[in-house]
Specification:
single chain, 7-stranded antiparallel β-sheet, 23 strands, binds flavin-adenine dinucleotide
Length: 463
């Protein structure tokens, strides 16, 4: 008889946990997985998927405007927030079912409960009030928005979780944060007709992205009507007698809004998880410490995804899950590869990016060539929209290796996916030059920028 109830027990049914459970069960392992909220996790229930659906919803007003240049007359459009939320909920419920079924069809057992560690092989299923045992345990509990408890009046604020299900669309919102979640929601709410202000303590939104894109996105968002205030933080939030909110800024201004949203980073879900019962070590921000193979300091306990605070993206959590399965169950140790991860910001316009920013490349390489083009996308020549696109390639002048590719404009995320393959394959600028353009597209610019716009040597721009 087997020593344990399961070969693998997974805590957390999000992107990483579900993938690890499904694939391990498919290998014939006896797998259990517990989810305390909804299968699918952050990405499916209150992250990537509903966000992208809301991005689509918020883009229609510009499409209606742009249609005029092409001969269309669009009747005055109306928008129903509750219908959007209800339709989104239906789609999310469908996906949630598929995630759960995927595990069960592969032979895994799903549990709708919070799970905590009792010891290194024992898990308590809280709502069933019983324990199960497992040979290997995988922690994939993800993260949650930083509640920012030090802010007076934080209890009046919402986070990305609540933004997806507000009973009413606010007339005015103030969003704090400069990361991609804050920026994307600022664009979503603005597109839906909400008077939107974005407040960020740093000097420019979207730290770690290429500065060129950050500046141009900032300018474009302002031109659309989003107010962006950098170098600023809230000092307090107060509920007014009329039910609205006063957002006090440290600089003295008071902004009146119906909702104040905090998007000030995310923290790993590791509290009250029983980690100390099993002796699992945590890092500075409470994340679970793992080695290159996602193994914790306790040999049979592993952790993947946001809870490890490495790269907090869905495809990364899924990749880490696949590496975990190879390592733990296929006798083929594979360390997750976090280098050159292509990513998108679904701002309006969109950002697609992979590899090193100009500043980072200039720090790491002696001399780099920067190929840069800005232009008005063909679509906007007739729509009349005054919006430009930016494309940039960063190339190591010595080896000709393309170190970074950065795009701001329509479909930038789709382009970044394909550029990700080129950069991962270690292609050179000469390979880009040898590639035939697809015409007429915006992406053709990526293979037709033959001459560098400028060089950067020893960190200094020359020429
Ligand atoms: C608003 C928003 C937008 C995003 N947009 C994108 C995007 O466009 N692209 C992208 O790649 N990434 C995006 N992300 C990030 C992405 O959602 C995460 O990186 C990804 O979901 C991480 O997967 P995970 O498996 O580590 O954790 P999660 O998906 O968070 O899953 C963890 C699960 O564990 C459960 N859980 C926690 N504790 C317990 C417990 N003790 N017992 C049982 N269950 C427990 C939670 O309920 C949760 O369902 C976004 C995130 C947010 C918040």
């Amino acid at each position: 008889m087997a020593q344990y109830d399961y070969d693998l027990f997974v805590i957390g049914g999000g992107s990483g946990g579900v993938r690890a459970a499904r694939v391990s069960a498919g290998l014939g392992k006896r797998v259990g997985i517990a989810e305390e909220y909804r299968f699918g996790g952050t990405c499916v229930i209150r992250g990537c998927v509903p966000k992208k659906l809301f991005v689509y919803a918020s883009q229609f007003p510009e499409h209606f405007e742009d249609a005029a240049g092409y001969g269309w007359t669009v009747q005055p459009a109306t928008f129903d927030w509750r219908k959007l939320v209800a339709n989104k909920d239906r789609e999310i419920a469908r996906l949630e079912g598929l995630y759960r079924l995927g595990v069960e069809n592969a032979g895994g057992q799903t549990f709708q409960t919070r799970a905590v560690l009792v010891d290194r092989h024992t898990i308590l299923l809280e709502s069933e009030n019983r324990t199960v045992t497992a040979d290997q345990i995988l922690i994939a509990t993800g993260g949650r928005p930083n509640p920012h408890l030090a802010l007076p009046g934080h209890e009046h604020c919402i986070f990305s979780n609540e933004a997806f299900d507000l009973p009413e669309l606010p007339k005015a919102i103030v969003i704090a944060g400069g990361g991609y979640i804050a920026v994307e929601f600022a664009n979503i709410f603005h597109g839906l007709g909400v008077h939107t202000t974005l407040i960020y303590r740093g000097k420019e939104i979207l730290g770690r992205f290429d500065m060129d894109l950050r500046r141009m996105l900032h300018e474009t968002m302002e031109k659309k009507g989003i107010r962006i205030i950098c170098h600023e933080i809230f000092s307090a939030i107060e509920r007014r007698a009329d039910g609205r909110l006063d957002a006090y800024l440290q600089g003295g201004e008071v902004i009146v809004a119906d909702q104040v949203m905090l998007a000030l980073g995310r923290i790993p879900n590791t509290e009250d998880l029983g980690l100390e019962n099993a002796g699992v070590e945590r890092g500075k921000v409470g994340s679970i410490l793992v080695d290159d193979y996602s193994r914790t300091n306790v040999g049979n306990i592993w952790a993947i995804g946001d809870v490890t605070n490495r790269v907090q993206l869905t495809p990364v959590a899924i990749h880490e899950a696949m590496c975990f399965v190879e390592t733990a169950f296929r006798n083929n140790p594979v360390a997750p590869d976090h280098d050159c991860v292509a990513t998108a910001v679904f701002s309006q316009p969109e950002i697609g990016t992979v590899g090193l920013s100009e500043d980072e490349a200039a720090r790491r390489f002696h001399s780099i060539e920067v190929y840069r083009a800005t232009f008005r996308p063909l679509r906007h020549t007739m729509s009349g929209r005054d919006e430009r696109m930016l494309m940039k390639l960063i190339v190591d002048a010595q080896t000709r290796l393309v170190l970074g590719a950065h795009i701001l404009g329509p479909d930038a995320g789709e382009m970044a996916q394909l550029l990700g393959i080129s950069l991962k394959a270690g292609l050179t600028k000469d390979d880009f030059d040898r590639t035939m353009a697809v015409h007429p597209t915006a992406a053709e610019e990526l293979v037709t920028m033959y001459k560098p716009s400028y060089l950067v040597k020893n960190g200094e721009r020359v020429g």
